[in-house]
Prior knowledge:
Order of helices and strands: EEHEEEEHEHHHHHEHEEEHEHEHEHHHH
Organism: Methylomusa anaerophila
Bound molecules: guanosine-5'-diphosphate, zinc ion
Mean pLDDT: 86
Family: Belongs to the TRAFAC class TrmE-Era-EngA-EngB-Septin-like GTPase superfamily. TrmE GTPase family.
Helix content: 40-55%
GO molecular function: GTP binding; GTPase activity; identical protein binding; metal ion binding
Number of strands: 14
Number of helices: 15
Shape: flat
Oligomer: single chain
Function: Exhibits a very high intrinsic GTPase hydrolysis rate. Involved in the addition of a carboxymethylaminomethyl (cmnm) group at the wobble position (U34) of certain tRNAs, forming tRNA-cmnm(5)s(2)U34.
Number of domains: 3
Strand content: 15-25%
CATH superfamily of the largest domain: P-loop containing nucleotide triphosphate hydrolases
Largest sheet: 7 strands, mixed
Strand order of the largest sheet: 3-4-5-6-2-1-7
EC number: 3.6.-.-
Amino acid sequence: NGVMTFDDTISAVATAIGEGGIGIVRLSGNRAIDIADQIFRGSTGKKKIADIPSFQAAYGSIADPDSGEAIDEAIVIVMRAPRSYTREDVVEVQCHGGPVPLQRILDITLRLGARLAEPGEYTKRAFLNGRLDLAQAEAVIDVIRSKTDASLKAAVSNLSGRLSDKIRSLRQEILTMIAHLEAAIDFPEDDIEEITAGNVSGSITIVRVELDRLLASAQTGRILREGLATVIIGRPNVGKSSLLNALLREKRAIVTDIPGTTRDIIEEYVNIRGIPLKIVDTAGIRETADIVEKIGVDKAREFVAKADLVLLILDSSAPLTPEDRTVLSLLPGREAIILVNKSDLPPVLDMDEVKSFVGDRPVLKISVLTGAGVDELEQTIADRVYSGQVTSGEAAFVNNVRHMNQIRQAGRHLGDALATIDAGMPLDCIAVDLKAAWEKLGEITGDTVGEDIIDQIFSQFCLGK
Ligand code: GDP
Ligand code: ZN
């Protein structure tokens, strides 16, 4: 059903570059089996790829068909169309995971007529062949890039089609409204028009509530996907480095360098109750003094402005200093948690004065030295991120800016439809707005979407996926 046929057979190394226990070269397309047959010699039982049943592993070796030179031992798995990732014939060649054997095997498949796959091309074929819808295909990247259990859960839930199902049922409701409008247009008696407009208006309101609910999940979804951009600020010696080091020691998720930016900004991911905190280590708060001192107040203000969350640290064992006040002056308009550190020492800091600066932001007493208050810090962060939403992964999280935009635009068209109804305009004008909303939502699942958008989405994938 709906399998498109692509002329070319694609090939790529599907595993990460570098040394590993095993590596995989993956072929997909009409000639996958034929090409694999020319390089594989079965050691036991099934000698030819064509004789190996789908999903059964066969052991043997890979050799260059021209020179006869042996390249590596290998296990081959055949997945025949349409029961494969791409819905085409797929052959996976598992060999030793070194760059040289993988590259040699890849080169031979290319010489035998395969074409090097573009980034994301396997998943793109899976989409074009109808195995995944667009939102599910996008969830594949999210699964690969997830940073914590919670973000993985949200991505897997979307991969299984939870968001797509929700969107489809909303589209169906809009379609039903359009059908009612069209039926009424065919029987143009005044009272039918009015009753229909009234009914549709009620249905639109219900769908809008659902769209709003999805948008509300988007903030959480984005944070789970990209991480909660966090900066730690405070004057020198309050304990910034100690806090960051403690979090990294116990909660480090993954380390990344941001490609294309200067080396003095490093992002570290810390896993707080499943939330990836992306801590921007500006010019090494870890080693040296503080962000404000090192990069200046203006630059610090810039970082603070970009952050989802500011952790502002004060020292409870000393009075508030002019530098503390400078740091506190960065707070207005920002989401922040105030940490009064060194609570293991005799308290000196005037808490009333602190409270006069921080408004209703949470103020927590902690001691990085003893670990006191760190649990409470984690809970406070989790509460802020989920703000009462379900955390179980049951919800369809919108975690993608593209989807957010389409939902927002669909909501706007529905708002237009309501205004059209209120203005007492003809029914076919309402139908136009509804149709526009229906199309916008279809762009999420890929039911109504242009080729340029599809290309742009799949170009973000890694090679071999
Ligand atoms: P930064 O300049 O803000 O990065 O501060 P540091 O993390 O370098 O800490 C400055 C000093 O305070 C170090 O000697 C730390 O050991 C000490 N310190 C940090 N946290 C605590 C704490 O909770 N209690 C006590 N007593 N000392 C702390
Ligand atoms: Zn420091």
